[in-house]
Amino acid sequence: xxxxxxxxxxxxxxxxxxxxxxxxxxxxxxxxxxxxxxxxxxxxxxxxxxxxxxxxxxxxxxxxxxxxxxxxxxxxxxxxxxxxxxxxxxxxxxxxxxxxxxxxxxxxxxxxxxxxxxxxxxxxxxxxxxxxxxxxxxxxxxxxxxxxxxxxxxxxxxxxxxxxxxxxxxxxxxxxxxxxxxxxxxxxxxxxxxxxxxxxxxxxxxxxxxxxxxxxxxxxxxxxxxxxxxxxxxxxxxxxxxxxxxxxxxxxxxxxxxxxxxxxxxxxxxxxxxxxxxxxxxxxxxxxxxxxxxxxxxxxxxxxxxxxxxxxxxxxxxxxxxxxxxxxxxxxxxxxxxxxxxxxxxxxxxxxxxxxxxxxxxxxxxxxxxxxxxxxxxxxxxxxxxxxxxxxxxxxxxx
Length: 399
Ligand SMILES: Cc1cc2nc3c(=O)[nH]c(=O)nc-3n(C[C@H](O)[C@H](O)[C@H](O)COP(=O)(O)OP(=O)(O)OC[C@H]3O[C@@H](n4cnc5c(N)ncnc54)[C@H](O)[C@@H]3O)c2cc1C
What we know:
This protein is α/β, with parallel strands linked by helices and 399 residues long.
C-alpha cells in the first residue's frame, strides 16, 4: 500500500499543534486534522509550564510569540494551612532564570497553530472516524463537512485528547477513572505583589495553588475540592466566594481583594494501555489525562512531542511506523508517565488527614525537605522537565 503521508496527527489541540510545528522542518509529509475548529476567545485556564517546556517552545520557534504574555514563576512555596513547615524552591537554586512560566491555554494553542501554518502545515477540518490496517500503511477515514476521505499514513498519532477516538479505533484499552475531585478555577487579585512567587498550599479545605498572573498582584486560583462543594462555591457571587477562599488559604499571599470568573471542572484520569498499537501512538492528553494538582499535563505532552520528534528525525528516510520506533517511543516515555501518574494519584490524598500527629509529621516533612538541598534540587529538576537525557529539541535546538 502506498502512503499519502508519513505522519497523520489526529487532533490540533496544543499537543497535536506542537507536534506539527516540530515535524514541519523535517523531510516528512505531515497531515494535521481536527474534528473542531481552532478555539476562539479568551483563555479557559492558565497553564504552568516548566523551564523544560519553555525550552521546547523556544526550539519550536513559538516562544517569541508567548514571552510577552507569560508570567515567570521564580519561586514556589509548598505549605500546609495551620502548620509551620515550608518547602521553598527558587529558580536560582538550580541556576535557572525561572522555575517555569504561566501562559493562557488558548494563546498557547493559537501560537502553536500559527507556527505550524507558517512552516506549511494547516489543520484540515475533519475527524478521524475509521481505521483500516495494512502492511505498509494505515488507511484512515477523515469525516468532514464535505464527506469522507481516506488518507493512507505510515504513522497515526493520537493527539485527540482524553476520550481519544483514535485509541478506541486502534483497539487500545483505556484505563479510565472518574476522580472524586473537581477543581475550582478563578482569577484572584491580592493586596500584595506576587514577585513571581507561586503557592501550593494544602489544608483541610482542599489543596490550593496560586499561580502568579500578568498583573503585579494577580493570580489564578486552582482549588481542588469534592465535586458538589466545588459546584456550590462556583455558583456563589464572587464577593461571597473571596472570603471563603481566604479562610481556606490563610494570609500567606496577603488579602484577597477581588475574585472573578469562578468555575468548576470535573476531573477524571485516563490513559491507554499500552500507549501504542499497530502504526499508532498516543501523545498529550490522549496518552495521559491526569489530575492537574502537579500542573504536569501539558508539560508531559510536550515531552511526548520532543521525544517523538527526536525519534522521527533520527529515523529520517525510513518507515516511521515500525514496531521498533513505536517501542523506542514507549521505552523513552514510560518512566516519566509512570512517575506523574503515581504522584498525581497520591498527592491530593496525602494531606487529607487533619489529625495533629499527621499534621505535625507533614509539617516536619516539608521543613526537612527544605533543608535537604540535593533531594530538593532533584525534585525540582523533575518538576521542571529537566531530568533525564534531553534531546536537541529539549535543549531548545531544532531541527
Ligand atoms: C483545570 C486544569 C488545569 C490544568 N493546568 C495545567 C497546568 O498548569 N500545566 C500543564 O502542563 N497542564 C495543565 N493541564 C492539562 C492541559 O490542559 C492538557 O494537558 C492539555 O490541554 C492537553 O492538550 P491536548 O492537545 O493533548 O488535548 P486537547 O486540548 O483535548 O485537544 C484534543 C484535540 O483533538 C480533537 N479531536 C477530538 N477527537 C478527534 C477526532 N476523532 N479526530 C480529530 N480530532 C479530534 C479535539 O477537537 C481537540 O482539538 C490542566 C488541565 C486542567 C483540566
